[in-house]
Amino acid sequence: MWNWNNALSPEMNINKNLVDNFKKYAKVSGIAFIILGSIGIFFPTFMSFTTLAFVAYLMLFAGISSGTLTWMSNRRDWAGWLKSFVLTLVGILMIFYPAQGIAALGMFFAVYFFIDSFAGFALAFSLKPQKIWWLWLINAITSLALGVIFVVGWPFSSFFMVGLFVGISLLFDGFALLWGGIFVDEVEDEEKKGQ
Questions:
Q1: What is the structure's pLDDT at 115?
Q2: Model pTM?
Q3: What is the rounded CA–CA span in Å between residue 170 and residue 120?
Protein backbone atom coordinates (compact mmCIF):
# COMPACT_ATOMS: atom_id res chain seq x y z
CA MET A 1 0.00 0.00 0.00
CA TRP A 2 2.66 2.55 1.05
CA ASN A 3 5.83 2.93 -0.96
CA TRP A 4 8.37 3.80 1.74
CA ASN A 5 11.90 4.73 0.86
CA ASN A 6 14.33 4.18 3.72
CA ALA A 7 16.74 6.84 2.44
CA LEU A 8 14.11 9.58 2.89
CA SER A 9 12.66 10.76 6.19
CA PRO A 10 9.02 9.82 6.97
CA GLU A 11 7.96 13.43 6.37
CA MET A 12 9.46 13.36 2.88
CA ASN A 13 7.82 10.02 2.11
CA ILE A 14 4.40 11.30 3.16
CA ASN A 15 4.57 14.52 1.17
CA LYS A 16 5.71 13.28 -2.24
CA ASN A 17 4.43 16.44 -3.95
CA LEU A 18 6.69 18.59 -1.78
CA VAL A 19 9.69 16.40 -2.62
CA ASP A 20 8.89 16.60 -6.34
CA ASN A 21 8.69 20.40 -6.19
CA PHE A 22 11.89 20.58 -4.16
CA LYS A 23 13.70 18.37 -6.67
CA LYS A 24 12.41 20.49 -9.54
CA TYR A 25 13.60 23.84 -8.20
CA ALA A 26 16.44 23.06 -5.75
CA LYS A 27 19.21 22.75 -8.31
CA VAL A 28 18.23 25.87 -10.29
CA SER A 29 17.81 27.90 -7.09
CA GLY A 30 21.07 26.52 -5.72
CA ILE A 31 23.01 27.58 -8.82
CA ALA A 32 21.39 31.04 -8.77
CA PHE A 33 22.27 31.46 -5.06
CA ILE A 34 25.85 30.35 -5.74
CA ILE A 35 26.20 32.97 -8.49
CA LEU A 36 24.65 35.73 -6.35
CA GLY A 37 26.77 34.69 -3.38
CA SER A 38 29.95 34.82 -5.47
CA ILE A 39 29.06 38.33 -6.65
CA GLY A 40 28.53 39.39 -3.04
CA ILE A 41 31.88 37.96 -1.96
CA PHE A 42 33.88 39.59 -4.78
CA PHE A 43 31.94 42.91 -4.78
CA PRO A 44 30.71 43.36 -1.18
CA THR A 45 30.02 47.11 -1.32
CA PHE A 46 27.96 46.65 -4.49
CA MET A 47 26.02 43.83 -2.80
CA SER A 48 25.47 46.03 0.28
CA PHE A 49 23.89 48.78 -1.80
CA THR A 50 21.93 46.25 -3.86
CA THR A 51 20.57 44.67 -0.70
CA LEU A 52 19.72 48.10 0.70
CA ALA A 53 17.88 49.07 -2.49
CA PHE A 54 15.98 45.79 -2.55
CA VAL A 55 14.88 46.07 1.08
CA ALA A 56 14.06 49.80 0.82
CA TYR A 57 11.88 49.41 -2.27
CA LEU A 58 10.27 46.31 -0.83
CA MET A 59 9.33 48.26 2.31
CA LEU A 60 8.10 51.17 0.20
CA PHE A 61 5.92 48.82 -1.86
CA ALA A 62 4.63 47.12 1.31
CA GLY A 63 3.77 50.49 2.86
CA ILE A 64 1.88 51.68 -0.22
CA SER A 65 0.10 48.33 -0.53
CA SER A 66 -0.83 48.39 3.15
CA GLY A 67 -2.17 51.94 2.83
CA THR A 68 -4.21 50.99 -0.24
CA LEU A 69 -5.63 47.94 1.53
CA THR A 70 -6.48 50.01 4.61
CA TRP A 71 -8.17 52.64 2.44
CA MET A 72 -10.24 50.02 0.62
CA SER A 73 -11.17 47.89 3.64
CA ASN A 74 -11.41 50.05 6.77
CA ARG A 75 -10.46 53.71 6.64
CA ARG A 76 -10.80 54.02 10.43
CA ASP A 77 -8.18 51.34 11.13
CA TRP A 78 -5.46 53.42 12.79
CA ALA A 79 -3.16 50.37 13.11
CA GLY A 80 -3.32 49.82 9.36
CA TRP A 81 -2.50 53.46 8.69
CA LEU A 82 0.35 53.36 11.22
CA LYS A 83 1.79 50.25 9.61
CA SER A 84 1.57 51.85 6.18
CA PHE A 85 3.15 55.07 7.41
CA VAL A 86 6.05 53.33 9.19
CA LEU A 87 6.86 51.02 6.26
CA THR A 88 6.75 53.88 3.75
CA LEU A 89 8.79 56.21 5.97
CA VAL A 90 11.48 53.62 6.67
CA GLY A 91 11.69 52.76 2.96
CA ILE A 92 12.11 56.42 2.02
CA LEU A 93 14.68 57.03 4.78
CA MET A 94 16.71 54.04 3.62
CA ILE A 95 16.72 55.36 0.07
CA PHE A 96 17.76 58.91 1.03
CA TYR A 97 20.16 57.95 3.87
CA PRO A 98 21.96 54.87 2.59
CA ALA A 99 24.79 54.87 5.17
CA GLN A 100 22.36 54.72 8.09
CA GLY A 101 20.22 52.29 6.13
CA ILE A 102 23.13 49.90 5.62
CA ALA A 103 24.04 50.16 9.32
CA ALA A 104 20.45 49.31 10.24
CA LEU A 105 20.47 46.47 7.73
CA GLY A 106 23.64 45.24 9.35
CA MET A 107 21.88 44.75 12.66
CA PHE A 108 18.87 43.15 10.97
CA PHE A 109 21.17 40.76 9.11
CA ALA A 110 22.95 39.83 12.32
CA VAL A 111 19.55 38.81 13.71
CA TYR A 112 18.80 37.00 10.43
CA PHE A 113 22.05 35.02 10.65
CA PHE A 114 21.22 33.92 14.19
CA ILE A 115 17.73 32.81 13.16
CA ASP A 116 19.10 31.11 10.02
CA SER A 117 21.64 29.32 12.19
CA PHE A 118 19.05 27.97 14.62
CA ALA A 119 16.82 26.85 11.73
CA GLY A 120 19.84 25.21 10.08
CA PHE A 121 20.72 23.32 13.26
CA ALA A 122 17.12 22.10 13.56
CA LEU A 123 17.08 20.96 9.93
CA ALA A 124 20.50 19.30 10.18
CA PHE A 125 19.55 17.29 13.24
CA SER A 126 16.19 16.32 11.75
CA LEU A 127 18.05 14.98 8.68
CA LYS A 128 20.86 13.37 10.73
CA PRO A 129 20.48 9.79 9.48
CA GLN A 130 20.70 11.08 5.89
CA LYS A 131 24.09 11.50 4.25
CA ILE A 132 23.62 15.26 3.61
CA TRP A 133 22.84 16.26 7.19
CA TRP A 134 26.43 17.50 7.71
CA LEU A 135 26.06 20.03 4.89
CA TRP A 136 23.16 21.72 6.68
CA LEU A 137 25.17 21.57 9.91
CA ILE A 138 28.07 23.42 8.24
CA ASN A 139 25.53 25.93 6.88
CA ALA A 140 24.18 26.49 10.41
CA ILE A 141 27.63 26.86 11.97
CA THR A 142 28.63 29.33 9.24
CA SER A 143 25.50 31.44 9.82
CA LEU A 144 26.14 31.45 13.58
CA ALA A 145 29.76 32.56 13.08
CA LEU A 146 28.67 35.29 10.63
CA GLY A 147 26.13 36.60 13.14
CA VAL A 148 28.71 36.78 15.92
CA ILE A 149 31.35 38.43 13.70
CA PHE A 150 28.81 40.92 12.41
CA VAL A 151 27.72 42.02 15.88
CA VAL A 152 31.35 42.52 16.94
CA GLY A 153 32.20 44.78 13.95
CA TRP A 154 28.93 46.74 13.78
CA PRO A 155 28.30 49.59 12.69
CA PHE A 156 31.68 50.67 11.30
CA SER A 157 32.17 47.84 8.86
CA SER A 158 28.57 47.60 7.65
CA PHE A 159 29.31 48.81 4.10
CA PHE A 160 31.67 45.94 3.53
CA MET A 161 30.20 43.28 5.79
CA VAL A 162 26.55 43.40 4.71
CA GLY A 163 27.42 42.51 1.13
CA LEU A 164 30.17 40.07 2.06
CA PHE A 165 28.11 38.16 4.60
CA VAL A 166 24.99 38.11 2.46
CA GLY A 167 27.19 36.72 -0.31
CA ILE A 168 28.69 34.04 1.95
CA SER A 169 25.27 33.06 3.27
CA LEU A 170 23.82 32.85 -0.24
CA LEU A 171 26.79 30.78 -1.38
CA PHE A 172 26.38 28.21 1.40
CA ASP A 173 22.59 28.14 0.98
CA GLY A 174 23.14 27.59 -2.74
CA PHE A 175 25.48 24.65 -2.18
CA ALA A 176 23.05 23.15 0.35
CA LEU A 177 20.14 23.47 -2.09
CA LEU A 178 22.16 22.09 -5.00
CA TRP A 179 23.34 19.06 -3.03
CA GLY A 180 19.84 18.57 -1.62
CA GLY A 181 18.44 18.38 -5.15
CA ILE A 182 21.19 15.97 -6.20
CA PHE A 183 20.48 13.82 -3.12
CA VAL A 184 16.77 13.54 -3.95
CA ASP A 185 17.68 12.58 -7.53
CA GLU A 186 20.05 9.87 -6.28
CA VAL A 187 17.41 8.47 -3.93
CA GLU A 188 14.84 8.30 -6.71
CA ASP A 189 17.36 6.67 -9.08
CA GLU A 190 18.16 4.01 -6.45
CA GLU A 191 14.43 3.49 -5.90
CA LYS A 192 13.85 2.95 -9.63
CA LYS A 193 16.76 0.49 -9.84
CA GLY A 194 15.37 -1.45 -6.88
CA GLN A 195 11.95 -1.93 -8.48
A1: 92
A2: 0.64
A3: 13
